[in-house]
Amino acid sequence: MKKSIMITLCIFLSLFLGTASAGEVTMFGPKQYVRTTGAPNVYTDTFSTLPGEAKLTVKNGNWDGSERITDAIS
């Protein structure tokens, strides 16, 4: 009885820990790109990550919405 409870507990914990690792991880940045006068600026950066679904967040100004820059990204 004790052995079957321990085996069940180990299986449950291994399944839980395997799925609990999915979370939000920053793979690149933060990085600031500054628009200068004259011709438009072109910036290129690369980064590596694991294959799968992801979310790219581009922020103009502060996270709280203040200091927004109009026409900053195109």
Draw up the topology in text.
Blueprint: H1 2-20
- The gross shape turns out to be elongated
Give me the strand/helix succession.
H
- Total strand count, please? 0
Alpha-carbon distance between the two ends: 65 Å
Strand content: under 5%
What does it look like?
With 74 residues, the chain is an all-alpha fold. The chain has one helix at residues 2-20. It is elongated and about 75 Å long. The mean pLDDT is 74.
Describe the structure in brief:
The protein has one helix and no strands.
Supply database-style keywords.
mainly alpha, 26% helix
